[in-house]
Specification:
Length: 194
């Protein structure tokens, strides 16, 4: 479809937007691949439920299982405009851009070598994911647990167990927190409540 000639009002609206603009609207439809938003100042879209679109990664900084864990149809939202998708003639939006990044806040208040308490979130073949609170999870690779080899079984860990961990690295670009277990009897920093 040629959006410029078939929907000149829609095309003009998309061209009038600038990255960083804050747009408000109502959640019009929720799909497994994203959320359509009917924008307050935007025209109707000829084929889609809304001119605004929130891709799954732009819904929240926190981990979630389903888009309905974050938004509901009919909910009012304010989003940051990221850019125009000229193929689908929609405004790409970010809901998470409207909130502070919890990983950045964690990195600002945490230093390498700091010891924290966390809860075992899940055990995977390469290690143990630890919930550190505030939506932050970190990985303790099995090779960092008491010197065990990387392929060690995870029989010692149960989901929900509280354990002490040491922050080894906070990588903001890769969005990951690497942890280890403290060496027995040695404390490397203050323990923060979770």
């Amino acid at each position: 479809m040629d959006w410029q000639s078939d929907s000149p009002e829609l095309w003009a609206y998309l061209e009038s937007l600038h990255c960083g603009d804050i747009l408000s609207g109502t959640v019009a439809a929720i799909e497994r691949f994203g959320v359509f938003v009917a924008l307050d100042d935007g025209p109707d879209h000829p084929t889609l439920p809304g001119v605004g679109f929130l891709g799954i990664p732009e819904l929240s900084w926190r981990r979630f299982d389903d888009p309905t864990d974050v938004v509901q149809v009919g909910q009012r939202v304010a989003c940051e405009f990221l850019g125009s998708d000229t193929y689908n003639a929609e405004a790409r939006l970010s809901l998470k851009a409207m909130e502070p990044d919890p990983l950045q806040a964690f990195a600002d208040r945490t230093v390498g070598g700091q010891e924290l308490l966390g809860r075992v979130e899940r055990v995977v073949p390469i290690g143990v994911f630890i919930d550190l609170g505030d939506g932050i999870s970190g990985l303790v690779p099995f090779k960092q647990i008491d010197g065990r080899p990387a392929a060690s079984p995870a029989n010692n860990f149960e989901t929900g167990d509280e354990i002490a961990v040491v922050v080894r690295e906070v990588d903001l670009q890769a969005r990951r927190v690497l942890l280890s277990t403290p060496e027995s009897g040695q404390r490397t920093g203050r323990v923060l409540p979770t």
